[in-house]
Design a protein that fits this description.
Number of helices: 16
CATH class of the largest domain: Alpha Beta
Number of strands: 9
Shape: globular
Largest sheet: 5 strands, parallel
Order of helices and strands: HHEHHEHEEHEHHEEEHHEHHHHHH
Number of domains: 2
Structural class: alpha/beta
Helix content: 40-55%
CATH topology of the largest domain: Rossmann fold
Radius of gyration: 20 Å
């Protein structure tokens, strides 16, 4: 009898060598790439704010290419969900992290799951991968609100009269949006600038509780011609993924005795106090920033989580002043003049 041996690790690694979307294709945007690396390393949800054509969608599509390789257990979980929807066919195990990008006209049921015979929605199809919501304010508010609990619990429960079904929904949320209805807020060269009332109405479509679950807010600017014309190759996804994987290993060791916490984005307030101890200088910097930039109270825990991830990427045991300073930059929507 012939014995067939399957090396799942080699199979997964081979799939990652030549990703369809690679960060080496992205010209400029070094600051945004840094944000994406931090988000991937800590499992943080992220929102990109910028004018049309700045590259928000292009950057989001490349996020799965820098996430750590899937474990066999993650692959089996993901394959089971996709097989329920008939999406596997002859592919065998799903070895590449999913990237789901539903249109903003999607219904609540299609996004979260349900129906007469409950099936997984887009958030479950994105399990162990990325859910990308392009033009976030254009989504129906009801559809966005039903995502709040799954984002917190990392699973979704659908109840019917005769039975209840629970589907996993542990995904990274990546959202993008124009900064205004026209897309050219604060652009001195544009004649389409909105009034303050139009601006507030547009941004007000995103509820505070949903924004609470997004750790990183970053502004994306248009790439100048010099960067677009530069033929120097950019850093590849493979190189970035190596650093991300090292940071994730550090977090796995840190949380190995905790059942429901595996990476920094999942930390509770108690765990933040334990693993993000600040010295006097860092505490003063954070206090000054919150007062000077009019940062909201919701930003406090998010800044500490992101700072912990930045420290992990640098291999540091303690969160320092530099880590706090960088994390503060990634809270654009909490600043006065955005969402208030």
């Amino acid at each position: 009898m012939e014995v067939v041996e399957v090396d799942t690790r080699k199979t997964f690694q081979d799939q990652l060598k030549y990703p369809e979307h690679d960060f080496s294709d992205v010209k400029g945007q070094e600051g945004i790439k840094r944000c994406m690396e931090i988000a991937a390393a800590g499992g943080h949800n992220i929102i990109l704010i910028g004018p049309p054509g700045a590259g928000k969608t292009m950057l989001a599509k490349r996020l799965p290419s820098i996430l750590p390789p899937m474990s066999l257990m993650e692959s089996l979980e993901t394959t089971k969900i996709h097989s329920v929807m008939g999406k596997v066919k002859n592919k065998g195990l799903v070895s590449v992290r999913p990237f789901r990008s539903p249109h903003h006209t999607i219904s609540d049921v299609a996004l979260v799951g349900g129906g007469a015979y409950p099936q997984p929605g887009e958030i479950s199809m994105a399990h162990n991968g990325v859910l990308f919501l392009d033009e976030l304010p254009e989504f129906k508010r009801g559809a966005l609100e039903v995502m709040r609990q799954p984002l917190e619990d990392r699973e979704v429960t659908i109840s019917r009269a005769k039975f209840t079904v629970t589907y996993p929904a542990s995904f990274m949320l990546v959202a993008s949006m124009n900064p205004s209805p026209s897309g050219f807020f604060n652009d001195p060269q544009s004649k389409l600038g909105p009034s303050p009332m139009e601006m507030q109405r547009y941004l007000g479509k995103i509820s505070g509780p949903l924004l609470d679950r997004i750790d990183i807010h970053i502004e994306v600017e248009a790439v100048p011609f010099e960067k677009l014309a530069d033929r120097t190759p950019a850093e590849s996804s493979e190189a970035i993924r190596e650093r991300v994987t090292v940071a994730r290993v550090i977090q796995q060791k840190r949380f190995e005795e905790l059942e429901n916490t595996h990476y920094n984005a999942q930390m509770s307030s108690r765990q933040i106090r334990k693993y993000c101890v600040l010295d006097a200088a860092s505490t003063q910097l954070l206090k000054s920033a919150m007062e000077r930039l009019s940062l909201s109270a919701r930003a406090y825990d998010r800044i500490l989580k992101v700072a912990r991830t930045i420290a992990d990427l640098e291999g540091e045991d303690e969160v320092s002043q530099n880590h706090i300073a960088e994390a503060i930059q990634y809270r654009s929507l909490d600043r006065d003049g955005w969402l208030g």
